């Protein structure tokens, strides 16, 4: 809020006209980079900041251009159905806005109403116009199959990240995958047979339940980041899945289970450097599991509310002492919250080395993990 007030206060000042490279404007004259910095410091997902953006958009033509780019660049926050419908109609009614969208996430706030056939048809029209998409996520898992309706005819030459959480769309997704072999990150709800290895050959990240990972991880040696999400293991890991874990460097577990529920999985994670665990069971024996991961450098732990114990600083310090390859531990209560960080520092010579060097661990500090850190580990600081 203070940032926004400071930005709005800038309108009471005029910068010298001798400074070069100003945008043509009818309002306060500011350098091009400053326009962009002011606008991008405001969050589209914040109601207060959206109001500030509305004010800026009416201040001058230069601000209007930057605000428009900022508003449409990334649509990745949940909206009520009525607001989402208005948004997709806006995209359909003007050829200017849809090509500006680079990141689109379909996620609605549930108010009891469900989209009808007309809404899906309009959304398909809007998706056809979003030709510059780089990231596309569909997060409404409790819907009937929709891939044929929504993705028919869609082509995105720059698409790198794709997530689809609807079961039953396996066959309908095949033509989409064939049109987008350049996809690098894929997260799926999957209930079908493994696709051909030549399909999406450039994957380096795969996420989903065990069925999806059994289908997409084996035979793709480029994949080094894996996100396994499940509350139960109705589909057991295959021998091919275990074998492919040897290539993985970043492994995420999310769900109400223990590491021990996956028989001897830690022994197969020989190359893993980063381990993320969300919904950690207090019964999990991390010491025994981590000792099998000889290359582990970083541990990220999130406890679910209501567990009998939380991951503590004391426990983190013990893990750092007992596992010499481990350099950093981030831990907190929920993935949308601030985390504490413990990291191994550089020890003065007189303090010694090895597991006795407790003082080598820095005091915890707050670390913010972005909202989509589980699905896109590149975002983790």
From TrEMBL:
<protein>
    <submittedName>
        <fullName>Uncharacterized protein</fullName>
    </submittedName>
</protein>
